[in-house]
Amino acid sequence: MRTEAEAGVRTFRDCDLGIFKALKGSLTGIERKGKYLMVRFSNKLGFVGHLGMTGKFLKRAPGEEVKWSRARFILDSGEVIHFQDMRMFGRIDAVPVTELEGRPGVAKLGLDPLADGLSVDRLQAAFHGSNQEIKVALMNQERIAGLGNIHAAEALFRAKIHPERSAATLSPPEWKALVKAIEATIAFALDVEGDGEEIEYVEEGAPNPFLIYGRAGTPCRKCKTIVKSFTQAGRTTHFCPTCQPKERKTDGDQMRKRPRARRYRG
DNA sequence: ACCGCTGTTCTCCG
DNA sequence: TCGGAGAACAGCGG
User: Fold this and answer.
1) Could you tell me the distance in Å between the CA of residue A166 and the C1' of nucleotide C4?
2) Is A39 helix (H, G, I), strand (E, B) or coil?
3) Which residues are paired to A166 by β-bridges?
4) I need a surface site. Which of A41, A106, A179, A258 has the fewest CB within 10 A?
5) Which nucleotides of B are covered by protein (CB under 7 A)?
6) Which residues does A77 contact at the CB level (< 8 Å), separation at least 6?
7) CATH homologous superfamily of domain A2-102?
8) CA A90, C1' C7: Å apart?
């Protein structure tokens, strides 16, 4: 195996391109941590990869053109694995394998639901001391690794928790529901969204596969209330005002301070 | 044609 | 420390 790289692209912003080009030999390990991939080669070099928003690994026949191909792994068979990344939010960070675990991003990752297993205790520990709004906390990779904007919203919809609730105000049943919801969301993601090399959920004409994400202005799948969206920590959050009420229905024992008012749209 | 939006993370402010 | 804003990039739809 040998490698090729587009010089100067942001994809390699963290690493010496020379190390990427020196990746050689056979694969000795592929490991996922949160949204990061760690790949090791037999010559003791490796890389940390991240797909960003538009990154993909694609295997293609020799000579086949791939648009937005930022890096290539040329197999002995001649087939090519392309790192395709239109927007270049993705990253390839090639270093000696001894340094992989300490690279930016991977070093500080929090609880990994798939690798570590999820439980109420572990989730609560991950959020310990946090007054962050729950959706923002779910997207914080240093607390729980792997959930992004879509799946944080999906998990909260499944758990019937309003995205602006503070983690500190969740009741025991809500914690339990959130654990189940995260597990279900991940299972759904693995099962339905992607089943092969190309994960395309916004393919032309494909229906939105999500329960709540991207459904602003349309009836909630469960209760027909019009789904709303608003901006939270710079990202669009989708939720159902009926299924995910801001105020807990059960009496207010555990309610602390009220979240700040925000403008809603959609 | 322009504007605002998009699955992420990082840095720079206050 | 923490949170928010903006940046990095390319494309798409209104």
Assistant:
1) 17
2) strand
3) A133
4) A258
5) 5-11
6) none
7) MutM-like, N-terminal (3.20.190.10)
8) 15
Residues in chain A predicted with pLDDT less than 70, given as ranges, are 193-205, 249-266
Q: What is the pTM of this model?
A: 0.90
Q: Where are the domains of chain A?
A: 2-102, 113-251
Residue A131: per-residue pLDDT: 87
Q: Give, in degrees to the nearest 5, the angle at Cα A31 between A128 and A70.
A: 110
Distance between CA A204 and CA A254 in Å, rounded? 46
Residue with tokens 């929090």: A110
Q: What is the DSSP-derived secondary structure letter of residue A37?
A: E
Write down the pLDDT at residue A266: 36
Structure tokens at A57: 């690994």
Q: Is the separation of the CB atoms in A67 and A17 below 8 Å?
A: no
Please state, in angstroms and rounded to a whole number, the distance separating the CA atoms of residues A2 and A22: 8
**Mean per-residue pLDDT of chain A:** 89
A233 CA → C3 C1’, Å: 8
A196 touches strand C (CB under 7 A): no
CATH of A113-251, one of 1.10.8.50, 1.10.260.40, 3.40.50.300, 1.10.150.530: 1.10.8.50
Closest residue, CA to C1' of C8: A89
Among A251, A53, A33, which residue's Cα sits nearest to residue A148? A53
Q: Which two tokens stand for residue A47?
A: 């890389």
For residue A130, the model assigns a pLDDT of: 86
- Label residues A207-221 b or e (16+ Cβ within 10 Å = b): eeebbbbbbbeeebe
pLDDT on residue A264 = 45
